[in-house]
Amino acid sequence: MLRYSLDGLAVVAGILLLLLVLLTLRRRFVQRGASFDASLRVTPKRFGQGWVLGVARYADDRLEWFRAFSLSLRPHRVFPRDELILGARRDPEYPETLAVMPDHLIMAFTVGSEDLEFAMSAEAFTGFVAWRESSPPGRQLSPP
């Protein structure tokens, strides 16, 4: 009976190790190119709730956002550059300080009719705003 318990424990440990390796490989794949850690909140009206940890990556004229704890190689959300309307920047308030990474800023933005928020470092914020305001040659973006 003890042998079956140890075998079962070894199988569970092996599966957990495999998941950890897969998550690590996926994170390396997602972070290729220009990327940054960014928590996303799709329900800004719920004070301090709804933050999901992830990684954002620039890809041509869009920003791809991947959940941190997922095995999917596809982005969870895609934000076209010309549809992003930047909002106000602010510091996290008390309940949010527990949900987002330390020293991250929160920036509101709109895509279509949807209000969203990103939490990102000051350096990532500067790069994000510069990326949003730039455009490829021959293309005109609406002002933020």
Task: Give a description of the structure.
The protein is built from 3 helices and 9 strands. It has 144 residues and is an alpha+beta fold. The strands form 2 sheets. It has a 5-stranded antiparallel sheet with strand order 3-2-9-8-7. It is elongated, with a radius of gyration of 19 Å. It starts with a helix and ends in an 11-residue tail after the last helix. The mean pLDDT is 84.
Tell me the layout of helices and strands:
Blueprint: H1 2-30, E1 35-37, E2 39-41, E3 51-52, E4 54-59, E5 62-67, E6 77-80, E7 84-90, H2 94-99, E8 105-111, E9 114-120, H3 122-133
CATH superfamily: Pleckstrin-homology domain (PH domain)/Phosphotyrosine-binding domain (PTB)
Mean pLDDT, to the nearest integer, reads 84
Report the order of strands and helices.
HEEEEEEEHEEH
Shape: elongated
Secondary structure: number of strands? 9
- In the CATH hierarchy, the architecture is Roll
The helical percent reads 25-40%
Q: Could you list the spans in which at least 5 consecutive residues all have pLDDT below 50?
A: none
Provide the number of structural domains. Answer: 1
Q: What is the CA-atom radius of gyration, in angstroms?
A: 19 Å
